[in-house]
Design brief:
globular, 3 domains
Length: about 300
Amino acid sequence: MKTRLASLITSVFDRKRETSRACILMVDKYGHHEWCNNPRKGLHGINMQFTKEAIIEAISSLVDNTYVKFAGRLWHQIVGIPMGTNCAGFLANLYCFTYELDYLVRVVDDNNFEMARELLRTKRYIDDLVTLDCNLLPRHLYLPDGIYPREILSLVAAAQGETVPYMDLLIRQNRRRGLITSIYDKRLEAKYANINVIRYPDTQSVMATKAKYGIVTSQLYRFLRRCTLATDFVYNISLVLHRLLNKGYHTKLLWAQVRHFMLRHPHIYAGKSVRTWCNRIRAKIDHLSLGHCKPGPLGQIMTDP
């Protein structure tokens, strides 16, 4: 991993120097970055600057010097990358990307346009892969002719068909609309039924009130981005409100968050009025409270009243 990441970083810096003569990468704690030709002096505490050698050395040092204290003993991790650090996900992503980049270069060199089109319908998040209507790619996942080294990254097909869960998404094939998405929650599967999942902060927690009730707004944005259909949007936000009400959250404060969001986004899902949205959400909460429907991993599951 150190060798492949060093090669990738060197390629990026060399390419940048060819196009703009920049050889210094300056970043701040907020994630903003800027390329510079020469080192800068007198930087504030939030700014740092790196050469390619410094980045390569930092990654190598992190990978080689990961220690975990457990049961009174100090353990040196020698297999895998350190998880829990801020950059762990980025390291995993970049490591997989080095193999994907090599494969893309081979596809382009071979003028394999059919495979190139399939790669456009393929997405990866760390080690989770989703492919849409791909026939060639599943047969070209592993080296020497494919993408990944089997001994390091062995993929297992979790689901396939017209309805597929991916991360927190449920992707469905719809004859009229094409692909539609809604929310997927694997914690609601039967095999996790005996696990008590604590989803939201208790009302007596020391978190600020604004942060606790801000859960509603953050989830509204999440559902708006992920739910193609208004029915899925209504169902998922009613589920959040139902759970928060059961934890003792104040009803008026919860509904104030909903109304404020709807007023700021009057045109979502064909632009229904705030009153209409609230009535639909309230009706679904009543169904949940009465047991007319219950949550499931693939969305709403109806039960006998």
